[in-house]
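JOB MANIFEST
job_type = single_chain_structure
chain_count = 1
residues = 143
[input]
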Amino acid sequence: MSYGLNEKLDLVGYYSLHQNGTESQYLGVLYQFYKSKKLDLATAIGMRYQNSGINDLFAPQLLYNYHLNENYSVGGSFVKVIQKSSLNDKGIAVDLTLYRNMDSFIFNDKIKNIYIGLGIFKNSEKNLLKDRLYFHYSLDIVF
């Protein structure tokens, strides 16, 4: 979810239910510093809150979206994860997602775009022997 404060600045958030039962919510501020017909780049800072009580600062973040055509794009992020309570550097999380434009399903004048995404995610675990890739999906609605 995002709420555009202006053309370059957004309040962003998400809710996620993880496979292990963890619930997490994120709230942050995004700044889009580059936008073209083919490529969008942004940076962000924010907090992730989890039902496990572990809260993390996400900073810095680099977000990208490469437009393949009017219906498909490839996007994702590189996110530095820092545990809030100890300022422990937890590493960098990376995701890569293929998005499909679903604007034909818009049912409300307030909705600008709808996208469905399928991708892979690497958590911030530093020990590469323990790292895993996770598959994920998303439904993104832009107001």
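[summary]
The radius of gyration is 16 Å.
The first strand starts at residue 2 and ends at 4.
exit_status = 0
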